[in-house]
Queue: 2 jobs
Job 1
Amino acid sequence: MSISSAIKSIQDIMRKDAGVDGDAQRLGQLSWLLFLKIFDAQEEELEFEQDTYRVPIPEKYLWRSWAADSQGITGEELLAFINDDLFPGLKNLLAPIATNPRGYVVKEAFTDAFNYMKNGTLLRQVVNKLNEIDFTDSGERHKFGDLYEQILRDLQSAGNAGEFYTPRAVTCFMVNRIDPKLGERIMDPACGTGGFLTSAFDHVKQKYVKNADDHPMLQKQIHGVEKKQLPHLLCTTNMLLHGIEVPVQIKHGNTLSKPLSSWDDEMDVIITNPPFGGTEEDGIEKNFPAELQTRETADLFLQLIIEVLAQNGRAAVVLPDGTLFGEGVKTKIKKLLCEECNLHTIVRLPNGVFNPYTGIKTNILFFTKGQPTKEIWFYEHPYPEGVKNYSKTKPMKFEEFKAEMAWWDDEADGFSARVTNEHAWKVSIDEVISRNFNLDIKNPYQEEVVHYDPDELLADYARQQDEIGGLLDQLKDILGDALTNGGGAH
C-alpha cells in the first residue's frame, strides 16, 4: 500500500471512533503516533551506528515494544496501556536536557498531547496501518516527507489553524534569498510546523555541508519556538524526519512572553511568517518598551526580530498590508526598523497567496541589521500568465520567483545592478519619512487595474434600476399633485 493510501485509511478509521471529533483532533491523534513511530525508527539507526548508545526512554514505551506486532495488545488492554502508562510515563519522564536531550524532546512533545481515541480495536487498526510505512528506508522517508507537507496543509482546514502553514513556494524563495550558511544561528520565533526551519536546514545541508564533521554544527544551528501544542509536536516530528536527532532547540512556548530587554541570544538569520490579525493576551505588551506597546501579534514580533538579530544579521518576514500603511505604534515600529536595519527590499505578493484560508494581502520584508535604510526597493510579484488567483488546488509555485531572483543582485555591492522595470521601483528614505513611514507605496509603472466582477456589475445595475424606478415614482407623484392642483384652480 502506498503511503498516501495508508494515511487516508488511517483517517477513515479514526472517523469511526467516537472520541475523535473533527480534523484537528484527527491530526492531533495522528501526530503523536507518527512522532513515536519516527522517533523509534531513528533510535534503531542510532543504536546500529553507536556501540555504546543508551535508549533515552523506558524500552516499554518504544514503538517496537507495544505497537510493531500486528497481533499485539488491542482493545481495552491497549487503551489502558496508552492512557494509564504510556502518556503519564512520557509526560513525567525524568530527562534533563543536559544529560538526556532526546528524552527531553520526547517529554516536551507529550507535555500537552492527548489520546483522543476511545476504541482500542480501532486504535490497533490505526497502528497497524502506520506499520506499513518503513521510516528506516530512505526512499520511503523521502516519500513521506512530501506527504507530510500534505498533512500540514490539512491543518489549514482544521478550524483556525491556517496560521501554521506557509506555502512552500514562499518559504523556499525567502530561504533562497537570505541564503543561511553553515554555522549561522537560524531562528523562526513563530515556527508553526517548521516549514522555514526545515527549508533552511535543507538549504545549508545541500549547499554548505561538505563532510561528516559539518553535520553536528548544522544540527545545532536551527532554533524555533511555537506557542501551540499541535504545531509544536508536528514541528518536532518534522525535525526528526529531516535527520535532526536532538531537536531540543524547538521550544514549546510563547516567544513574546519574555521581556525584550532580557534577550541575550543573538541570531544571524531570522525567517518567519508571524501570526497576524490576532491579539496577544493581556500583559504580554508589558514586555516591550512603553512607547511601542501594543497587543497586535505581528507588531510585537517585528520588534522582537529587530532586537534579536545580531549585527549584520539578516531577516525575511511575511507581514500584512496593514503593517505597511498602519499608523500610531506601527509608525514608530517602522521608524525603528528603518533606523536600526537596512530595509532593502519589499516583495509585494498578489492577492490569494494564502487562499482559501485568508484573503489578506501580504508582503515579504527583507532587511539586514546594523546600517540605517537609505532606500527601499519594491518588487510587485505578478500572477503568472493565465492565472487570475491562487487556490488550494492551484497554489503559487517556486518557479514564479525566477524573475525576482534574476533581478535581485548582491547586497554586498549595495544592489547596484538592480534596475527599475514594470515590477520593480525604489524610494528614498526621505520620501518614506515624508510619508510618515507609510510603506504602502503603489507601483508607479503600472496603472491601477480595475477588475470588474460580473455579479457585482449586475447587482449595481439592479440597484441603479431600483433607484431610477423610485425617482420615477416620486416624479409621477409630484406631477400628479401638480396637475390635480392645477385643475382645481381653473
Job 2
Amino acid sequence: MPELVYFEPDALEYPKGKQILEWAKHHALPVHMTTSHNRITNLPGETELEKYKIAKNTLVVGIRKTLTFDTSKPSAEYAIPIATGCMGHCHYCYLQTTLGAKPYIRVYVNIEDILQAAHKYIEERDPEVTRFEAACTSDPVGIEHITGSLKQLIEFMADQPSGRLRFVTKYHHVDTLLDARHNGHTRFRFSINADYVIRHFEPSTSSFQERITAAGKVARAGYPLGFIIAPIIWHEGWEQGYADLLSRVAETLPPEASSDLTFELIQHRFTKTAKRVIEARYPKTKLEMDEAKRKYKWGRWGQGKYVYPDEQAQALREFITEKIFLHFPLAKIEYFT
C-alpha cells in the first residue's frame, strides 16, 4: 500500500489510469499531479535515507513512452515493461543502482500499446518461440492488486502460439491470478533462498512459507512453475541452509509441480557503485562485499562485477545442483551464473 500517489497528466486519459485514481481515492491516499516522474522533488524526509524510504512507498502512474524492449538474457529474449521499481528492501538488489536516486514504483497504464509492441516482436521471430520477462525492473505480483496488468499480460500471451511469458516474485499475493486463462504459456517463478539470506537481506517481502504456499496454489492452477535461487550467498552454514531450503520445497509442493519444474541459479555479485549505494542505504547490512575475496568479471557493457572465485562458485553450483536433482529428478536447471 503506497503512502503517496502521483499521476502524470496523460495517464488519466487511459481507463487503467482512471481505475487506479479511483482505487487511490477509495483508500484515502494522498494524490498529486506531476508533469513527469523526474520532477518529483518534494518528498518528505529530512535525510537522504528518509527520502529513499518514502520513495520506495511512492506510486507514480504514467505512460510507457519507449516501446523498444531491452534484451533479457539468459532468462528470456526480451524484457516486457509493465512497471519499474519495487517495494521490497532487498539489500543486494541490482535495482539499487539502475533506478538511481529515485526508486519510485512506476506503473504504466498504456498496456495495449505495450501488448502491441510485444506482438510485433513475436511476429518478427515466428515460428520461433519468443519469451518475455516481466520482472526485470519490478516485482509485478506486488502491485497486481493496483493495476491488474499482469493478468492482462498472461491472458494476452495465452493466445500467442509463439509467445511465452515469465516473471518472478517474492510475494505471495497470487489469488487474483489463479483463474487467469494462461494456456500453459506463462511460467510463474518464485525467488527463494536459504533462511539466513531471507532473514537478513530481504525486508518487506513475503516469508519463505508464504512464498512456497503460493507456489503450491500456482501449480494447482496449472501454471508451469519455476524457482530462482538468487542470490546464492556463501555464508557460515551455507550447505545446511540450502539443503534445508530444497527439502522444505520438496515437502510442501504438490505432485502437480514436479512434471514441469525449472530452477535458475544466480550467485551473489556486486559492482563498486552498488556497494557504495547499498552501504549508504542499509548502513547496518551484513552483506559481504569484500573485493579482496572475490573474482572480477567483466560485463557485456564494459563494466565489471565481483563474483565468487571459481572454486567457491563451483562448490555452490555442484552442491545445490545435487540437492535439486535429489528432490526433483525431473527438474530442469536452466542456468547457473
